[in-house]
Every structure is written in C-alpha cells, then in structure tokens.
Batch of 4 targets.
Target 1
Amino acid sequence: MARRFAPLPPVPDHPALELAVLERWDAERTFDRLREQNQGGPRFSFVDGPITANNAMGVHHAWGRTLKDVFQRYQALRGHELRYQNGFDCQGLWVEVEVEKSLGLNSKRDIEDYGLAEFAARCRERVAEFAEVITQQSRRLGMWMDWDNDYYTFSDTNIEYIWRFLKEVHRRGWLFQGHRSTQWCPRCGTSLSQHEQAGEGNYEELDHPSLYVRFPLKDRPGEALVVWTTTPWTLPANVAAAVRPEAEYGLRDGGWRLAETGEEYDHVVRGEELVGLEYEGPFDELEPQAGVVHRVIPWDEVALDEGSGIVHIAPGAGTEDFELSKAHDLPVLVPIDEGGRFYPQYGPFAGMSTGEVEEPVIESLRDRGLLVEAGRITHRYPICWRCRTPLVFRVVDDWFIGVDEVREQLREENRGVEWTPPQYGKRMDDWLANMGDWNISRKRYFGLPLPFYPCSCGQLNLIGSRAELEERAVSGLDQLQELHRPWIDEVLIRCESCGVEVRRIPEVGDAWLDAGIVPFSTLGWESPAYVPGGNATGAARGLTGADLPDLAYWERWFPADWISEMREQIRLWFYSQFFMSVTLVGRSPYRRVLTYEKLLDETGREMHRSWGNAIDANEAFDRMGADVMRWQFCETPPAQNLKFGYGPAREVERRLLTLWNSVSFFVTYANIEDFSPSYDDLRSGPPVVHPLDRWLVARVGQLVTETSAGFDRYWTPAVTRAFDAFVDDLSNWYIRRSRRRFYSFDEAAFRTLWYAVAQGLRVIAPVMPFLADELWRNLVAGACEGAPGSVHLAGWPEAGEVDSALLAEVAELREVVELGRQARAEENVKLRQPLRRASVFGSEAARHHVDEIKEELRVKEVELLDSAPVRFSYKPNLRVLGPRLGPRLPAVKAALETGDFEELGDGRVRAAGQELGPDELLVERAKERGWAHSERFSVRLDLDVDAELEQEGRAYDLIHALNALRKERGLDLTDRIVVTLPSADADLADRHGDWIKAETLAVDLQVDGAALEIEKA
Ligand SMILES: [Zn+2]
Ligand SMILES: [Zn+2]
C-alpha cells in the first residue's frame, strides 16, 4: 500500500505554510545539514555587505537580502561550500542620529552633556536590539545565514584592521590634513564627504532670498558694483567680488552690472577693466573685517545667465570661494561655528544661525541704502544625507586620503570585475575617474576612532593595532574597555620622535571605512593564528561568536566570487572596500557584482511612510508571504526600478496557483490509484513510452538548462520566466493532453508527471524556498524511500540530453493550437462547440500532429494548406505618396480602402491607375472571419455550425453541466451516478448516451421532462 500524498487545499495559504516550513527547518536542522553535506566541496565565496542595525528591515532591504539568499542557495545546491556570514553595520552617523532622536538630544552639546560613555552604551544597545529584529525578519524571509556568527563593524577587531589600513595609507604618504572648504551639516556638527552626499536624494528644492546689493567703489564716487547673492548669511564674511573678464558690464543709475543687449548704459566696459578696483565691503564695521581690503577679482566661472554677473566672494563660506582665495591670496573669514551659529566677533549676528541672520542682514543693508532688490528664489540645494538639514560650507581641518596616486590602478582593477548588469562597471569607472580625495574624518562620537596622535614637534604618530597602543601607552589603558570614545581618548602615548606625551585627535572615521575593511577583518588577513571568537571583541563582545580566522583562511576565501548590493553602493561600499583592498593587496576584493535599482510602490512612486504607501516588511510577510515577495524581487530585471505591492503579489499568486493546481491534480489521482513514486526516477529519468512523456522529459531538461544559465549569470528574471513557461507547458499541455491516461492509471504518465514536478521544485527552490520545500515534502520526501527530507538537500538536477527538435516541434504545435483558439475567441465561438474543419498553413509539425490539433481545437478534420491564401490590406504611406501624387492621392486612397486594387507581386500594387512600390504602402494582413496568424503560421476555422455539430455541442455542454453538478454535490471522483435528463435533451441520450455516461461515470440516463438531476448510484 502506497503512502497517500497529502491532499492540497484549493489555494495555498503562503504565510501559514511558510511558518510551518520554518519550524520544520529548525526541528530537522535542515540548514546545518546542508552545510555539513557541502563541507569540503568547492568554495563559493560571498561577502555580505553589512546592513545597518539601526531600524527594522524595510521591504527594499528584503529585495537585496533575497538576491543574496537566492544565489547562495543555488550555489549550495551545486555542492559548494559557503561561509554564510551576515554582517551588521554598527557605528557612525546613522546610529548616532537615531539614538539622539530617541533620547531627545539635538546637538553635539546635548550629547556631551548626556555623557559620551552613556551615549556609546545607548548606541550599542540600539545596535543589539535591531540586529536581533533584523535577524528575525531575515529568517522569516527565508534567508539562510550563520546567524550566531555575524560580524559587527564596531568590534575592536574591525577597528584594528582599519587602523592597519590607515597606517599603510600613511606609509605611502597619502594621508594628509586638509584645510578645506567642505559641506557641513550644522545639526550633526560635522563635515560630510563627497561620496556620502553624492546621492540624488540628498538635494531638495528650497526657497532662499535673492538679493542684489550695492558694493560702493572706493575711488569712483557715486559708482557701485551690483552684486547678486542667495546666501545673505555669507555677506558678513565677504572679502572680494568676482567678474567675468571677457564679459561686458554697463553702468546705469550708478550701478555696474552685466550689460544686456538692447539696454541703455552710461558706460560699458569689459570685466577685466573692473578687476583690481577696491570697494567698501557690506559689513566693514565687524571685527573680523578689520584690515580686509575688498577688491574685484577675475573669475571665468561667473554665471552670466542669472544674477548681475558680479558674484560676491566669501572664502570661509563656499568651496569655489575658498579655491579663489588661494589663487588671489584673499583672507578667509569663517563666520559660523560647528553648530552653524555666528561666532561672537560678529557683533549683532553673534549666536544666530545662518537662517536667523537673513532678516537682520537684509534690514541692515536696506537701512544703509545698499539693497537694490530683495526677492526669493527656489533652487536645488544640498541637504544632510542623514538628518535632512540644509548644508552650509565651512573651512575646516579634516583628514583626507589622497586618491590620485592610486586612481589609475583602481580603474585598471575595475576592468577585471564582472558587473551585472554590465553598464554599472562603467559607472564605477566614472566614479573612480572623477572622485576627489577621501575625507575620512567626522567630528562626532560613536565611530571608528582615528588613531592619529599629532605632536607639536611635527611628528604624526599613528597607531596600527591594539597591541601597539598598549605598548606605547603611557596612561589610560586600565579604563580602556573598548576602542571607542570616550575611553580611547583617555589613552595617551609617547611621541616616537621627541618623547612627549601626545593625545589622539578627537575625530572619528567615515563609516565606509568600517564596511570597507570587511574582506580583511572577517577573513583573517595576515592573522597569525585562528582565533575562535576573535571578532567578538570590544562593543561586539556578547553579540556574536564570529571567529577571527588566519591568513590561510583568508587566502582560501579572498577575493569574493560574488557580492551584491544596490546601485548607490558604487560610490559607497563597492568603492570603499575596493579602495582599501587595492591599497592593501593590490587587487579587487570581488570578482563579480550584482547591483540593482530602487524599490518603488506598485504605481511607480517612491515609498514614504508619510505618503501612506510604504509597506512594512512584517506586514508583507503576514499578508503575501515571503515566497511571493521573493518572486516579485526575482522577476524584475535589476537595472529597472522594482514596483512592489499587493497588486503584483496577486498576479504572482495567480501564476503560482497554476503550479499548485497541477500538483493538486497529481495528488488527487495518485491517491485514487495508489501510485507510488521511486526516487531513482529523479536520477535516471522515468521510462518514456508515450511521445508526450518523451516531450515532457525533454521539457524538464530545457528548464534545467535555462534556469542553470540564468542563475550562472546572476539573472533571476531568466529563471522566473523559464519556470513560468514550464508550468504553462506542464499544466496546459502535458496534463490537458494526458488526462485520460491519469483517469485510467497509466503508470508511465504518473511517473513522468511526478518527475517533472519534482525536478521543477528543485530548480525553483532558491527563488521560493518555502513552497518548493513544502511540495517536495509531500510529493518526494514523504513518498520515497531514500529521498532527501528537504528539496534544499537534494542538489541540482542534471539537464541530460535535451531533444531540441522535439521541443521545437511541440512548441510549434502549441502555437498552431493557440492560433486556432484565438480564431474561435475572436468570433465568440466557445471551445465546447465542435467545428467541421481547421486549415493550417506553414507548420510542418501540424502534419505529424493532426489528431492533437483535432482534439485541442475540437474539429472533425484538419486540412493542411500549401499556400497561405492570405489577403493583405494596404494604406497609402502618406509621407511618401503625398508629395508624389498630390491631388491624385484621394482616388488611390479610396481604391485601396474598398479593395479595388491589383497585387503585382514583390509587394507592388496597382490602384486607381497608379503603380505603388512597397515603400509607398503600409501593409497589414486583412482581417478575415475565422483566420488567425502569427509570424510563421496561419490557421483558419470553418465556423459554420450545422445541426449535427450543434447537437454535439449540446452534448459537451451537458457533460460539463453534469460534472459541475457532481462537484457541487461533493461526490468523490470515483462515485457512480444516475442521471435524469429533461425531455428537451432526449435526442442527446439517443445519439450520444454512451459517451455522456462514460464522461460522467453515469450508470443510467433517464429522460422524464423535469430539470437536470443526478443521484449517487
Ligand atoms: Zn545632519
Ligand atoms: Zn614629538
């Protein structure tokens, strides 16, 4: 007695099914067993880009994490050994700003009052909390990772590896302290780097003042420069005004401005003639302005399409201004402090923010008669990537890594990386070609402590490891609980040059250093020994058991075979690890990259909580289930934005239902017939006796080939497309064509269908691990001796020899049948109505499959046509014919429309006495009743229904109605029935009685004039 297969409910409850599968995976240690099974196999090295453990996961994170899981699962099915290490990003502005919000702190002063040790503790707590949340969500998504051994970027080990990198950078002479103008967030109180700020989202349309201001010229009484600015707060720091040397400037009403054509001026000169003139600054009375000589300088970049053509220059408050100060030896006045407030020396403005001074500045100018015009302007303005505060510019001392020396080597290495999609490799190259020096310092708290100890003797002391720190420390070691502020700041070392005690600079590092070092810190580069738990150090202690491997391990796993993150990471993580790796070991840390675009809502808008269109990941797990989410993520080409939502989810569910129904069909009849499968069939293939079986086995081979190719080139849409097409063939061809074989227990049909479904589950398992495993459990693991208990332990199927001629033949046949159905649909002739004849043109396959076509199209005969008696309709190509025919065109047009023309061959036509060439005509196939055409084939149905056909059609309707009644009454598929027919259908009983009985398992047909009725026999 065979074991019964579990009957399937009418539709799958994805979320419930997935929770049950998760429990089973835990109970049966499925993931551990997979790892044990693949241990010692060929390696597939994947390095996880760390997710910031700062908030719960969003559905956009679920996209990336799905792709990571899909390809890891595929490689595991291929027998590869993998590391499965997940990473958490743990420090820097992300975490700090969220912790500030949760504690109600809103400035650096607030943080310092709160206490750095306490603040660091809160940051660590937040990371621990959300690492746990993300872990649970990732498990729910089906992501298989080594969850107890995650790496945390705030571990001391990770920090030490970055120190080592910085030491190498210094050894090469690339590290420098720059006195530079930089984008500055007044709320966060730190400068921000080019790569952090480069994103599209880091700009907003903002409304600012637009001022025209008079700067009186010193030696020319009554004359003034008319200067334009949109940042009134920078005027107190003005030291110069710039003109375009070759542009023309005109004097009118005592003001010099760009001369516009058609306007009258008292006097017009070229800009270069104004250069060198001195003027009275707008705020000369302020203390910092003492001694400043304001003058006109030349600048080729002055914009001529907006403003007055004269630009005010404040080198302490603008990047280009700062560059000009170096060229023209201008003083640099920095008016605002870290918090964006005016320094005390700025008299009436002292303590005000850049926004708060706008009004007083404008008032003061107006009072003194210097304001020409005050309006507003809306323009694109940079905002902080982290807290959305509008940025300002400050000139500060930051630490930089010079990139010019390594730039070409980076570009060269990038050429060896395989990017998917390939165009992103070019983007990386663009970034590498144009990136500026790397600003690595942040004036913040909970981040990588930069190990720089400058000495007044001129020596820059750099610490490369904790051991080195301990060796050189003169005090503070006893309280050093982890390598973070405030503890690290208390450790003083001795200057290696002059021997005095020196202190670390207060700055912390760019968070991209933290993530960039991961291919070294997690794989044990240059580590002399394998240290169990060696990444569970510092702040990471107690959160993970991650080992620090040794150099031999690094050599085995570096570089990564494959990594994947969103496109934005080109200038971020893809870049930082690339830069660090090329610097440390001279080569790329990864061989292949898959990158992808943005996740939008299903209508194509960005998701925002405030717009009410954001979908919470947990809600999606509960409402659509992880498999349906994963399917959406996988079917979108990664170079396109992904439209995610419940509408697309329903569409996915609908398609998965076709698979479900096919399995359900199998289960139903297999249980009736006590079918018992053999696992060997998956190894050697089922016996093929019937041509359809041979075809389905070949079709499985094609599926395996196509999905292998899709996975191998990291292109999930090819996988989902191949699977969809396979399920369609399985359901709408194989099962449809084989129903009778299942009703009559043709064992070969059962074996072939079982084989096809089981192989299908194996190849789709990486994409939808839950449903595939649930069905595998039912069809394979629970039914076969010696079968793996999970599809994920079953390995990857062999494609075998694929009979492509047979596949092409059946594909052609399906196309022909599809055309016939189309011809019916267009004339609203239902499929149950038999027809006399189908005529087929162009298909060789049709010749060998006349019987199938007859059945599928329900026709009595199939006629094969040698030529296509297809008519074309023509329209004049007006663009060409209009000029040629002129007034004769309407007659030609009318003749073509009414069909009054002659075809001359080669696409030429004669109409209304004109001969027209192919390029003068727009050709379409004429629409004719009963015909349907594809590129290759044509099918015509004879749509005339005579009395005999009509009667047969009614018999089909009756059979359909009876089977619907059987279902309605809840009869078993094997139950026999007695049928009572209304007298109107008496002719059907006479003419088609036996057939109707056979199709409905009826033992008797009675006619008694009442309504249609059935009874269990
Ligand atoms: Zn900010
Ligand atoms: Zn010194």
Note: The mean pLDDT is 94.
Target 2
Amino acid sequence: MAKTYDAIVVGARVAGSPTAMLLARKGYDVLLVDRATFPSDTISTHLVHPPGVAALKRWGLLDRVLATGCPAIDTYAFDFGPFTLSGAPGAEKTTVAYGPRRTVLDKLLVDAAAEASVEVREGFSVESIVFEGDRVTGVRGHGKGGATVTERARVVIGADGRHSLVAHAVNPAQYDEKPPLLAGYYAYWSGLPMEGRFETYVRPSRGMAAWPTNDGLTVVIAGWPYAEFEANKTDIEGNFLKAYELAPSFAQRMRAGTRETRFVGTAVPNYLRKPFGRGWALVGDAGYNKDFITAQGIHDAFRDAELCVAALDETFCGLRAFDDAMSRYQTSRDQQVLPMYEFTTELATLEPPPPELQQLLAAMPGNQDAMDGFARVNAGVTSPSEFFSPQNVERIMSQAGAVTAVH
Ligand SMILES: Cc1cc2nc3c(=O)[nH]c(=O)nc-3n(C[C@H](O)[C@H](O)[C@H](O)COP(=O)(O)OP(=O)(O)OC[C@H]3O[C@@H](n4cnc5c(N)ncnc54)[C@H](O)[C@@H]3O)c2cc1C
C-alpha cells in the first residue's frame, strides 16, 4: 500500500513551514514540498509586526531570529509632510517589530519544520493535484531532474502563494476582490542607519518606507499608483529617487549611504478565497492576499497557520466535522482581517485621505496615546474598526481641542 500522509503542504515559506511544523508538533505525519531550495529570496520586503513576532515567540523561534543580529524596531514614524506621527507599535508583551530578510526567516522556518519531524522536500515542483471524484487526495510532482511521483494525504494544503496551483485546481469561491492598486519597488542600502525606526513618508500619489534588516542593511521601498506601473518601468531608479525627493531629509540620508542591490518590485491583486473544501485547505497568500502597503502578509500567514492547524487537529481527532472546523477557520480569519483589508486597500490607492481622516491625523501630533494607537493599527495590533470608532475619534478630537484651548 502506498503511504498516505496526514497532510501534504505545498509551499514552504511563511505560511507553509509553520503550518507543517505545527501539525507535526501535534504528532501528525506531514510532507512539506517547495520547488525552491533554502535559503532563497522571494519578491517581498519583510517587516514582521509585533503580532508576527509574538507568533515566533510562541513557537520558540524568536531567539533564532535575534541570533541573526536582526535589529529590533521600537518606533513607527509616519511623516505626512506637515507633521509626523511617531508611536510605539507593540502590545504589552511584544513591544517591537523585526525586519529579518526572507533568506533568513524562511530558512529558519523550514528548518524548524524539519526539526519537528516534517518530511521536507526542497526543489520539488508540484505539477498537478490528484482528485478522486471531487475530493483532493494528493499531489503529483517531481524533484529536480527526477521522475514524476504521486503522493497522497488526508488533506493537501496550498501554501503556494499568490499564483497558487492548489487554488487554481480547486477553484475556490473568491470574494471582496480588488484589482492591483499600487506598484512598489525596493532595494537595500548600507550606511543608512535607522536607529530602531520604521519610517514611512506619505506624499501625493507616492508612499515610501524604510527600516533596518540583517547585515547592517536598510530596506528602502517606494510605491506609486498601479496606473503608473507600466510607464514607470522604463526608469525604475529615476522614479524611485524622484519619489524620495518629496522627502528631502530622508533623500539626503540615502545619498550619504550606498545602494547595495538592484531594485525589485511588483504589484499584487487583492482577494479573499474560501480556504477549504473536500480534502484541501489554503493558507497565506493562496487564500487571502492584499496590497503590501501595510506589510501584513507575514503575520497573516502565521495566523492562518495556527487557525488552520487548530481546525485540522479538531477534525483529525474527530472532535468536529471537517466542514464545521474549517468554516470556523474561515470565519475567524475573515473577522480578524477584514477591517485591515479595507484600511490597506484604501491606503494603497495613494489618494488623499478623506477630510475626516485628515482632521483626525492632524489632531494627533503631541498626543502620544493617539500616536501609539495609530502605530498599533498599522502594526495589525489594534483593529482599524476599534481605532477609528466614533468614540475613539471623538476622544482624540476633544483632546486636541483641549490642547488648542490651553495654548
Ligand atoms: C513587494 C512586496 C513587499 C512585501 N512586503 C511585506 C512586508 O514587509 N511584510 C509582510 O508581512 N508582508 C509583505 N509582503 C507580503 C508577503 O510577501 C506575503 O504575504 C507572504 O510572502 C506570503 O507567504 P506565503 O508563504 O503564503 O507565500 P510565498 O511567500 O509566496 O511562498 C509560496 C511558496 O510556494 C512555492 N510554490 C508555489 N507553487 C509551487 C508548486 N507548484 N510546487 C512547489 N512549490 C510551489 C514557492 O516556490 C514559494 O516558495 C510583501 C509582498 C510584496 C509582493
């Protein structure tokens, strides 16, 4: 009899490796495959907000990130031109963010999966998904230069990113779709110290950000509306530097440093997908993707891993039917991400904020509580629905009124 794994996970980066690791830690028999080998890079910057840092800590992996010398980020500064809002992004227990290179983070996660007794096959490309009737029962694929093999499992988990082959095969319902809104490019600089700060610059039709990463480097990213994607491709460096001219003091700091890499970038669509069906599940970008302007993808992938594994564990143990457990996974994911999804896709238009939001932002300088709150929204710690609730907005506006009255 051919072997049947409990789960096959396709894709071994920030969604797939933790999913496989957490399943294996619960005693399940897991095969994790990726056509990439590790360490390797992917097109993505890598700000990991405090909720992602908290997940790494829960899994016992944060010390490994720290051991790579990746500096902590304790301040988020949002420069709107006339004023800057500077706040602390963290929650009580996890006060800082980190920006580990994907070469570092993804390798560390794959290794942790292997240590948890996951069978890891790097350099293994899945060619197709195996069905019995309408039920997914396995994958067909090959290692580098090898023959095609078939592997079977009780569930096949697509952690295979935006161009997910698993999602393509199972054709899940897709909802709340929005087209690509922004095109972003990034490169790494040396000699550009950030002193533990994530800095972002908001300008008309332009958004920029920078933060420190491994090896004394700083990642610097600039974005423009998707409508300019094609036209600006002819001179990415010129358009990138021109964007930073709108933030002259940062541009000066950049000029004092050295660009060490070429520019890399892209634009991405926005969608949610039903993340389960007979014999399959989706985690990470395969199931939910959004513009990278708020840098939520990594901790969203971590959250999916935990929610999906908890749901699968319940079904494998016979505590809940598959559909019941997995629809709880979907509901919980959607409840947690939808307000941030709306906030992210609004920001990604790079259009001026509506007047009420402009008034609120302008009321915050000098109000440390409000600025910390705003930093925590961007960090995915506080839901936008909570921060922008009428009561909180009123509180911030009245505090600003009180300050104005005193002066
Ligand atoms: C420009 C940009 C900047 C970003 N910046 C940030 C940021 O600062 N912070 C943040 O949190 N998020 C950021 N994101 C989002 C983040 O990159 C994604 O949310 C995250 O990478 C999703 O992880 P994943 O594991 O779901 O998919 P991926 O990282 O895309 O991994 C999918 C894996 O599946 C493998 N795979 C695919 N198909 C197959 C197949 N057929 N067979 C075998 N293997 C396969 C691939 O080789 C790949 O390794 C950014 C994204 C972009 C595009």
Note: The CA atoms of residues 79 and 87 lie 12 Å apart.
Target 3
Amino acid sequence: MEERRLGPVVGLGTWHTFDRNARLAREVVGAALDAGCRLVDSSPMYGGAEASLAALLANRRDRAVVATKIWAPTVEAGREQFRRQLAWFGRVEIEQIHNLQAWAAHVDWLEHERDRGRIARLGVTHYSPAAFADVGHALQTRRFDTVQLPLNPHERECERELLPLAARLGIAVIVMRPLGEGVLLRRSPPREVLADLSVETWAQALLKWALSDERVDVVIPATRNPEHARENAVAGSPPWFDDEQRRLVERWAGT
Ligand SMILES: NC(=O)c1ccc[n+]([C@@H]2O[C@H](COP(=O)([O-])OP(=O)(O)OC[C@H]3O[C@@H](n4cnc5c(N)ncnc54)[C@H](OP(=O)(O)O)[C@@H]3O)[C@@H](O)[C@H]2O)c1
C-alpha cells in the first residue's frame, strides 16, 4: 500500500456535471487543476463522465489522481468496466467498489490488479447510513485503502463508527456531498463571520470544516462553474479550523 494520507486536499466530483456541456466541463477541470486540485472522482454510474474526463485529462494525465469506481453486479461486468478505464486513464490511482455492490466478489481480482500496479489503492463507497454497518464489515477485512462517505454539518452519521474505524485502520477518507448537494449554500453567513474563519466564501468554509477533521483526507465538491472550481480548490490549504471555528460553521449551517 502507498502512504495512507491522501490529503488534506480538495478534489473534484463529476456526478451530474460532466455530461451535458463539453466546453464547460473542460473549463471546470482546467480551473480546478490550475488552482491546485489534483484528485478527480468519477464512476461508470455517472453516464459518460469517465469518458469525458479521460478526454479532458488527455494532455495532463500526470497532473491528476483518478479516483473512479467499479459498479457491477458480476465479476465479468466489473472487469469490462476496468478494461475501459485502463483504455481511458492508463492506470487507476483509486479504484472504489461503488455502493459496496458485489464487493466480496470484486475484491479478489481488484487486489490482483493492485499487485500488478494497474491500481494504486482500493476502496469502497456508500452514500447511505443504512449501509454503514456493511461498510464497517468491509473495512474490518483490512483489504481496503480508502473509504468514501457523505459528511457535512447536516450529515454526520459517519463520525460515530466509520471515521474512528478508518483512523484506527489507517484508511484514507474521501468525503462526498461536502456541500450537501448545494443545499447548505442557500444561506451564507455575513462577511464578518467568513473573515473570522479566514475564508472568502461559505463554500470554502464548509469544505474546510470537513478537511479540518484530522480523520478526513479529501473532499470532492462537484460544480458546473469554473469560478466555483477555483474557489473550492483554494479551500485545500491551511490554516485549518480549530474546534471553535468548526462549531461556528455548524451554527451557521443550522445544526
Ligand atoms: N451525492 C451522492 O449521493 C454521491 C454519491 C457517491 C459519490 N458522490 C460523489 O461526490 C461528489 C460530490 O457530491 P455532490 O455532487 O452530490 O454534492 P456537493 O458537491 O455537496 O454539491 C454540489 C452542488 O454544490 C454547488 N457548488 C459547488 N461549489 C460551489 C461554490 N463554490 N459556490 C456555490 N455553489 C457551489 C454546485 O452547483 P454549481 O454547479 O452551481 O457550482 C452543486 O449544485 C459527486 O459529484 C460524486 O463524485 C456523490
């Protein structure tokens, strides 16, 4: 396994954002990479997002860490997804079993691919707290290097069992939905509060809130807006929030 820590860094999600407008997607990826974002998260579940991403990374593949997923009910279907990913990306830095689908069947052949060097890290993901006990069982096997979970001031269920478990086992944590799918951005605190947090925007405050938990490595906000991509990438730099600043964010998020 490579060194456990991936972060703290801001990555870029691609769900719902990479299919419809190729020019805009190019600008978003360009803005994110230029602003220091290094990790891009995708999946076969996100329509044509992987293919679009591969085209956008063509002349700067070495600048990106590709995190994508296997989302397949059988080993055969999973291997076919992986063949396509190798053709697009050459190598997959973080291969995650999406929503734990058929994970016990996939993990053997994925470990073999990791041993061959075509995958750097193996992970699992789930979006629902109803599946967190199963995520915990998968992590306990110690066969995974990363786990992707939802975390924001309104969704904190992973703090109870999975973040402590990941920290204990040395598993890197990737945070999906760090902005609550945009819902948390409907109301921003006033400028003075943002100044107290040493950030310029409320989105940056929410991203820093998650990254300031030492058990968290990566946040992967998604955006269709290059300006937002730039603004989000900046949140991947210190200083990190102390406990008081995190509580301030939680109060303004209405929790
Ligand atoms: N949601 C899930 O269940 C799920 C499951 C598995 C994996 N993931 C992964 O996690 C990634 C992120 O989660 P998500 O896309 O569900 O939600 P999210 O990143 O929490 O929120 C995305 C929303 O925030 C807005 N936004 C982003 N940056 C902003 C900024 N600086 N200022 C204002 N608005 C901003 C975007 O709108 P604009 O386009 O206007 O910026 C978009 O509507 C996904 O793309 C995917 O890679 C998600």
Note: The two ends are 38 Å apart (CA to CA).
Target 4
Amino acid sequence: MLVKTKGFFITTSIAYTNTPPHLGFALESIQADILARYCRLLGKDVFFLTGTDEHGQKVVKAAEEAKKTPKKFCDEISAKFKKLKEILNLSNDDFIRTTDKKKHWPGVKKVWLNLKKQGDIYKRKYQGLYCSGCEAFITKKDLINGKCTIHQKEPEIIKEENYFFKLSKYSKRIEKIIEDEVIKIIPESRKNEMLNFARQGLEDISFSRPRKDLKWGIPVPDDKTQTIYVWADALTNYISALSYSKNSSKFKKYWPADIHCIGKDIQKFHCLIWPGILLSLGLPLPRTIFVHGFITVKGQKMSKSLGNVIDPFKLVKKYGTDPVRYFLLREILPTEDGDFTYRKFEERYNSDLASGIGNLVSRVITMVAKSNTEFPFMEAKVKMRMKSSSPSKQIPNSVFQAEINKTWKNYKKALEGFKFNEALKTIWGLISFCDRHIEKERPWEEMKSAGWRKKKVIGNLLFALGNIANMLQPFLPETSEKISKQLKTKEAKPLFPRI
Ligand SMILES: [Zn+2]
C-alpha cells in the first residue's frame, strides 16, 4: 500500500466546530501524523492535510448559546483545532477550513456544477426522516427500534424541496469497488459492514437544504434559495485543499488520497457517498480508508453531559506531548474502541517511558561518559534511515544484528498494517533485549579498564539505541531527537522523570 512514485496524500477527517477538540480527534490526528512521518522517512513526498468542517445548523445553535456570531464562534473553535499541531507536534502541511471562501468555496462550487453537468443532481419534493443529532436525513435502515443508532433519538419527519444526488446510479459500482478493494477499507470488519450497506442498494441522497432553514453554508451556485448540504461541502475539502482543477500541479501530484484517516461514525460518508461523488466527477478514488474506533472514559462515551470529556490541552500540559502520543498509540487499539483513565496513563508512563526507554538511555549514556572510550561510529548511527548497517566489524555482534533486523521487519510490517500498538510493542521488545544484555554482561564491572569486551558491549548498546531513536521518530519525534542528541553529547539527561 505504501509504494508509488506520485506524491503521498494523507488526510484526517475535518473536525466539526460545534465543540472544542477532544481526545478522539487528537487520536486521529496522531495516527495520521505517524503515517505521514513514517512515509517521509521512507523518502516519500508527503502532503498531510487536516482542518475543520464549520457549516451547518449545529454550529449555528452552539454559536447562539455562546452568544456569538457563527463566524466568530468558528474562528475561535477552529483556532483551537489548528493549535493541536503545536501541542501534539503534528506535521500537517496544511489546514483547511470549510468557511474559507478563497480556498474552499470555489472547489465546492465546481464540484456542484460538474455533478450537475453529469446529470447527477436534480430537484425533487422530499419527505424524509431527519435526525437533528446527525443533522442528516436518515433512512429506515439506519434505525433500531425506530431510533437513530448514534443519537438514540426518534427522527422527525420533514417535508421540503431539495436537490438530490443520484447515488443510486453508482450503487453497483461502489459495491464492486469495496468488494475488490479498489478502495481498501481497514479493518476488514468495517469493509464488510460497508459492503453490506452497498449490497442493499444505495438511495439518492439529499444534497441541499432550503436557504431559509440553513443560512450558514455555501449557497447552491445557480439557486440562491438553496444551501449546499454537508456532503458536497465537507467531503470536497480533500480536493479543494489541492485546488481541485486539471491544471493544478498540487492536485495532479497528490490526488488520489492514499490514506483517509477517519472515525467509525463517518465511515458511511467516506466509503459510500464520497466514492459516488468521485465517480460522477470522473476522478480517481482514494486508495485506503482507515477507520479508527472511539476513546471511552472508564468505559463510557465521552460527552459534555456526562462531564467526562478529556481535554487534550490539559493532558499535554500535565504530561507533555510525547507521553500523550505514546499512550494513545500504545494503549488504544488502532481500530477498536479504547479506554482512557489517568491511572492507566500514569502506569504506562512510569513502566514504559520512565523505566523503559528513559532508564535504558540514561544507563547507556552514563556508561559511555564514564568509560572514557571513543565510539567513533556514533555519529553515523543516529542518522535517520530505515535499515540498520554495521558501523564496524565487531559491532554490532551477530546476536544484536539479528535482533535489530527482526525488530525493523516487525516494525515495518506493523506500520504498513496500521497496527501502531504492535509497532511500539516491537520497539519495546528491543528495549527489553538491551536491558537483559546489560544485566548479563555487567559492563560496569570493568568500567575503569580499557577492555575491548566493555567497548563491544557498550558499542552494541549504542548501535541499538541509534536504531531505537530512528524507529521512534514517527511516534515520539521529540524523544527521538533527544536520544540522538544525548548519543552525540554523551550527556545523560532524564527523558521522562517518574510521576
Ligand atoms: Zn442521529
């Protein structure tokens, strides 16, 4: 999945600006960031996009409650999402806002007109089930016991005249696309779920709302009485950010997206509606849609009313960026729901970061400093590269080399399968290997002598640490840099003080 010559395009979904960022979007952003950083290490020309989805009635309502105009409200919330880049150390290349009239709106209008040109947009009187929670018309198939499965609420019946998109026309093709993995949906269980929906036949979907009911949105280009509804507005961000046009070099270079990283609540939009739009536009389809689960808190869904929302800003302020990145990727299974508690967080922090990598680095660097021996190959080892090579004939010894090779192999396999937790487990396996080696060889016992045995032991450990720093680069970029620096300066400074 990760090999090709064109630019590599990775996106998160765009976050809805009715509430400030919570830990769930932080997770998605970090997952996408790790993929982006990993692909850059492999030498790919990566474009990593994130942003905010700002239109719709829910935003208007939230703004009213805050006694602000929708514009001011969105500016403030969007700025908080934008700030995630800084606090989570994200490497995104761009940040798109759907209220951006210069960057986003022209793309949306163009998409609308091109869909219309294909004969895929038509007006019709409509009566449908509308869930105000979803802010969407839903079908009977979406209901369990007459209620929306996401909001546990009975939908209202709404009658109005809207524009529709002929999704039904593409239903069979979308089914085949999912089945044949033209778009690879990860994990497999999500693919099967989407395939089941497609097999039931996709219905045409409402693509606009009357302007009188939805003023906060992009007007339909040739009908001022209607506002473009979320699909053609929000999903289009992925191409408007590349200035969607045959002549745009960015668009030519990066489209189709290689990875859309999304949450399970919006998989239908991405796996069923988005391909329909792209097929109508005659554009290539995204290659992979990676679907993550939700973060729960003590087993419960995070929600304002329960008062259990974890604020990523507070978390980072208390523990630092890398511990948050580490916990979310190590503890939360990539495609399942996962639970957050402060107790678990601190346990992981102390065992894996303070006692694990932190302790190993400080032990090895202290030995280097005390040993009074030159290790001329250190510089080469800390260079970023995705495979290990031998700095000298004796170092690393064959056992070390085999262990490091095995770790790289498992690490790459895990990352290419989006198994972030497995990749980290693999690195920590190498850390334990080094710890065991130190215990067995006890190099400090001959610290004062200039013995070759000691030099070999420490040399092997340094070589392993250089590789560990490389492997950590996508996950814990700051820590990786600190380790590299300590390998150079031979000055041990605690990476993660115990809490
Ligand atoms: Zn709903």
Note: Residues 390 and 396 are 6 Å apart (CA to CA).
